[in-house]
Amino acid sequence: MGQQRMLDVLTAEWDDVADQLDPESFTRLVVLVAELQDTSDSETSALIAEDIASLLGDVLPVTHPVRRALAEPESRFQRPMVDWQQVSTGLRDRLTSSAPRANLDRLRAVDSLDAHQVEAAGGDPADPDLIRLPSDTGPDRWPAFQFDAAGAPRELVRTVNRQLHADADPWGAADWWLGPNEWLGGVPAELIGRVEDAVLIEAARDDAAEV
Question: What is the pTM of this model?
Answer without folding.
Answer: 0.56
